[in-house]
Specification:
single chain; alpha/beta; Alpha-Beta Plaits; 2 domains; four-stranded antiparallel sheet; binds adenosine-5'-triphosphate; ABC-2 type transport system ATP-binding protein; transport; AAA+_ATPase; ABC_transporter-like_ATP-bd
């Protein structure tokens, strides 16, 4: 089935001890695209992905990978699917590069092992046994093993967890290259910047169900503009919200070329502002953000004697979207 999507999941249910940890999950991952599965700890991401990998048998629902059943047709799928597990899943007694050559030899048309090793910086620990590798080194080796057979679909479970920034960028470059070659990539991650950067489509999972999904750009575009500032903690956020509402109502600002007054052309009353201190000293202003809002915010901070150390104005990040959807309480 050359035209079937990389992965199709319909109404997937997986129970442990009678408890549904995946509870009617639907997902489609296209070829030539990165699909990110996001969700809090214990949301059911790994279990869902393991059902797609044929490592777990669903209790209900349907899973198709390249149009095939990953459990019943596991043998046909094996050479076409690359899997990078969260714990690496590698044999521990062999040397790193030796292991990769061994995996490559199992495929009809593997990638060039030396080139892949260079791409992912494996040479520096090529002769080290897997058990002695650091967490990040093991992750890089696991990724190499997942892609060396030129798979059509790749499952990456938290691929850059524990990696240093250089390795992370090498991984991201490789993922982009695979996507460009038409590979369908399913990625679970807790790194929202990773998902925002890489993913074409995002599924947010909580309590075993998809609570939001869509093209990453659309999810982000749906958010309003916010002003984020860093300064000293403990400021009166309600007072700032009142000041901003007043400034917006007056619709006044002062330009560098002299006093200039603008007023809202439509005469409508401005939307109220919500100001939150998200973590000590990090504030977000949400509402009908305009140049007046930014100017009034910085002026108010100056009046408080609070030194502004960072100011950004922009749309919500994927992290904002994620926290709005799943809440701030720990799981
Ligand atoms: N083999 C198992 N037996 C019993 N419960 C399990 C088993 N595997 C997972 N669970 C439970 O299923 C739930 C979902 O786990 P899963 O690993 O799929 O979550 P996750 O979204 O990948 O979480 P994380 O972000 O922490 O990796 C958790 O409550 C977990 O404890």
């Amino acid at each position: 089935m050359p035209d079937s999507p990389a992965v199709v999941v319909r109404g997937l249910v997986k129970r442990y001890d009678g408890r549904a940890v995946v509870d009617g999950l639907d997902l489609v991952a296209e070829r030539g695209a990165v699909t990110a599965v996001l969700g809090p700890n214990g949301a059911g991401k790994t279990t869902s992905v393991e059902c797609c990998e044929g490592l777990r048998t669903p209790d209900a629902g349907e899973v198709r990978v390249l149009g095939l059943d990953p459990v019943a047709q596991a043998r046909a799928l094996r050479p076409r699917v690359g899997v990078m597990l969260q714990d690496g899943g590698l044999p521990t007694g062999v040397r790193a590069l030796e292991m990769l050559r061994h995996v490559a030899a199992m495929y009809a048309d593997p990638r060039d092992v030396d080139e892949l090793a260079e791409r992912l910086g494996l040479e520096s620990f090529a002769r080290t046994t897997v058990r002695r590798l650091s967490g990040g080194q093991r992750q890089r080796l696991a990724l190499a093993a997942a892609v060396v057979g030129r798979p059509e679909v790749v499952f990456l479970d938290e691929p850059s967890a524990g990696m240093d920034p250089q390795s992370r960028h090498a991984v991201w470059d490789l993922v982009r290259e695979l996507r460009g070659q038409g590979v369908g990539i399913v990625l679970t991650t807790h790194l929202m910047d990773e998902a925002e950067d890489l993913a074409d489509h995002v599924y947010v999972v909580d309590h075993g169900q998809v609570i939001a999904s869509g093209a990453t750009a659309e999810l982000l575009a749906a958010g309003e503009t916010a002003v984020r500032v860093r300064t000293r903690p403990g400021l009166d956020v309600a007072a700032l919200a009142t000041v901003l509402a007043g400034a917006a109502a007056r619709g006044t600002t002062t330009t560098s070329t002299g006093a200039a007054t603008t007023s809202r052309a439509d005469g409508a009353s401005p939307a109220p502002f919500v100001v939150t201190e998200d973590e000590p000293g990090a504030y977000t202003v949400r509402g009908d953000v305009s140049p007046v809002t930014v100017a009034a915010t910085t002026r108010w901070l100056a009046d408080q004697g609070a030194l502004l150390t960072q100011l950004t104005v922009g749309r919500r990040t994927l992290e904002d979207v994620f926290l709005d959807l799943t809440g701030r309480h720990l799981r």
